[in-house]
Design goal:
Blueprint lengths: L2 E4 L9 H6 L2 E8 L4 H4 L7 E13 L5 E16 L6 E15 L2 H10 L4 E4 L6 H12 L13 H21 L1
Parallel strand pairs: 1-2, 5-6
Antiparallel strand pairs: 2-3, 3-4, 4-5
């Protein structure tokens, strides 16, 4: 069974290997503004994510028993539309599995080979907040756009007048 710790803020750090081997779980909610690097990419700080991290023993594809973490996050964030610059609601749905490696070099080597899961260093001071933030940043759309928007009015006018100017130049040359 799981040892569940309900918390409202992300703990500063956990002992990742002990957490996984003990099959612990922690979960909570986080406002968009609490994830500093994510907040810098948003239209506004509205939005909330619910998240959970489960520690589990796991047998990897090589048959080795090792600790493993599962991160799940759900919610929505408001990102700026790349076209009109207005708010665009982006749904966040993250499911990540990560095997824990004893050190950075073995984590990097295995991460290059593993396709179905990530590999993280089993630090006694593992940052759940940084992992969550990293995964949310990867989930954010690169150039989010509304399905049906146009450029802001002042840009449309400038664009139209620029094309009109080019057309008038072309007519003068002929």
């Amino acid at each position: 069974g799981y040892s569940i710790r309900m918390i409202t803020t992300i703990p500063p750090s956990i002992d990742a290997e002990a957490f996984a081997r003990a099959r612990q779980r922690c979960e909570g909610g986080v406002d968009a503004g609490q994830l500093e690097r994510v907040a810098a990419e948003l239209f506004s700080l509205e939005g909330k994510l619910t998240w959970s991290v489960d520690g589990e023993p796991w047998t990897d594809p090589m048959g080795r028993d090792r600790p493993h973490l599962h991160l799940s996050a759900r919610g929505h964030l408001l990102v700026p539309c790349a076209r009109c610059l207005g708010p665009l609601k982006q749904v966040i749905a993250i499911e990540r599995w990560a095997a824990l490696a004893p050190d950075e070099s073995s984590a990097e080597q295995e991460d290059l080979e593993a396709e179905a899961y990530d590999v993280l260093v089993a630090s006694p001071h593992f940052s759940l907040a940084q992992w969550l933030e990293d995964e949310v940043l990867l989930e954010l759309l690169r150039e989010p756009r509304h399905a049906d928007c146009s450029l802001p009015g002042h840009l449309q006018d400038d664009r139209t007048s620029a094309f009109a100017e080019l057309e008038s130049l072309r007519k003068r040359e002929s």
